[in-house]
Amino acid sequence: MIFSEKLQILRKNKGYTQEGLAEKLNISRQAIAKWESGQSYPDIANLIAISTLMNVTVDYLVKDQDCSPAPVPQAEHNDIKEIIRFRLKANVNTYAGFMNEVDSTRLDSHDFRFEEGNFVYHDTYVGGEQFAGEEAVWKNGTAVYAMNYMGRVLDERFSGNFLKEALRAATAEMPYRGPELYQSGEYSYRCRVTGNFAWFQGFEEIHCKEIKVYECCFHGGLLR
User: Fold this and answer.
1) Do 188 and 199 contact (CB within 8 A), yes or no?
2) What is the pLDDT of residues 142-190, one digit of tens each?
3) 168-205 in b/e burial notation, b at 16+ Cβ within 10 A?
4) What whole-number distance in Å separates Cα of residue 218 and Cα of residue 39?
5) Reduced to 3 DSSP states, what percent helix, strand and coil does the chain have, rounded to the nearest 5?
6) pTM summary value
């Protein structure tokens, strides 16, 4: 993942508009737009300011990265693969698959639960057109993975069915929410992630033709 993509994800996860980030850095909104489109690159002073504001290192900002997990011991790698496999199966058997909704665990929450073998998955969220929630995975009664998310509908052309369709298309290479890109008819879904399954943050959005109709920030990782 390159700098322009990282900056967009970090900015949106912090809740800044381009104008808001520009004000924090005391620069123009046009400069932010050019950085995020890859037309230009910040100087070292602005890189340091961004790293401080976003709580990341300059090294992280300037080095291109992908979403692949970093090398880990074989035993741990196998555990991660097992959790990912279960998380993907739970995903298509709960909210995204219109299945396994259970009683609310919190006031006015929507909850989904899936179990298989020694694994349990639970997803709970509150709200509707603007929402927040958490999904978690337990193995043998111990929490091993969790992800928090917050999103909102931006336009009446948003399709909940398309979002669920995109989420069901998640793969072992992109197991966080949906795939990097998914399209159907006039709708397109995009997902960008920094980090890996052990510790990540990301941003997803849906466009209907050229209009952005939905966005959601998320972050999560393994527990220990």
Assistant:
1) no
2) 999 999 999 999 999 999 999 999 999 999 999 999 999 999 999 999 9
3) bbbeeebbbbbbeebeeeebbbbbbbbbbbeebbbbbb
4) 27
5) 35, 35, 35
6) 0.73
